[in-house]
Amino acid sequence: MRLNIPIKRLLPGFESRLLLRRVVNIPRDSYDWLMGRRDPLIPSHGLWFVGGEHEYQAINEEYVGHFVELGGLQPRHRVLEVGCGIGVMAARLAKFLSTEGSYDGFDIVRVGIRWASKHISPGFPNFRFIHVDVFNKHYNPGGRLAPDSFVFPYEASTFDFVFLKSVFTHMLPSAVQHYLREIRRVLKPSGCCLITAFLVEDVSTELIRAGRSSIALTHDFGGCRVIDPKFPETTVGLLEQSFHQWCADAGLKLHSPIHFGSWSGRKTYLSYQDILVLVPAKGELSRLRW
Length: 290
Known about the structure:
Layout: H1 4-10, H2 14-24, H3 26-35, H4 56-69, E1 78-82, H5 88-93, E2 102-107, H6 110-119, E3 127-131, E4 159-164, H7 173-186, E5 187-197, E6 199-200, H8 202-209, E7 219-220, E8 224-226, E9 236-239, H9 240-250, E10 252-254, E11 274-280
Parallel strand pairs: 1-2, 1-4, 2-3, 4-5, 6-9
Antiparallel strand pairs: 5-11, 7-8, 8-9, 10-11
Helix pairs in contact: 7-9
């Protein structure tokens, strides 16, 4: 994670970093193509602009398990992924959701949406991808839309299940608060949302100070903690107490205790990032099964 800081200072533009990645991975991608080794639903190495490539299959299986066990996901559900990247999680859900269900995903990186729309949607017409030109200094510095006022392109009360995997880890507080309101708007009254984040509270703060965390969220930045004030969206830690208030303001509440992750150096954890399961503060929840 700390390697991101010098790379972004040398190559501040996302497109330049992606180009470098594509060039560096030409030998690997050429070899995979010649040997027929690449999964047609998974992008080439050079296009992979999100983390976890070397272990994506295990991570996908892990999160499908969390979606089902913690979020009550069922094959017939309507699913929304906020920040779908290049469709890596969608590729796994294509094997889980039935034709009664559906998947919608949106992202601020155009190249990811183009790839997913071309390679996933033709075989799975109930999977749809939309590009949204929302500003983010890390991923979309030329974005025209402000993240703290952007309206999700979906009708109210549309989705049974919404998830954000490593999205709030790259967003600042005002944008997070707005996204929580939009999540509540598009969720059905009986719906559920699963979010991953880096939450800063007493235990994680002490572990960071002791040098036991894998991410040095040591800089205060406008109500959150970051590893690099010059590129704050690289990695963002949200203050847990503030996050609870933002959820309440948005009409959401925790369905179960927070599942803290190993990133902070905890010895007991569920996953790498912290996992939160949210439901509407009011509504019928009997459909969900835990």
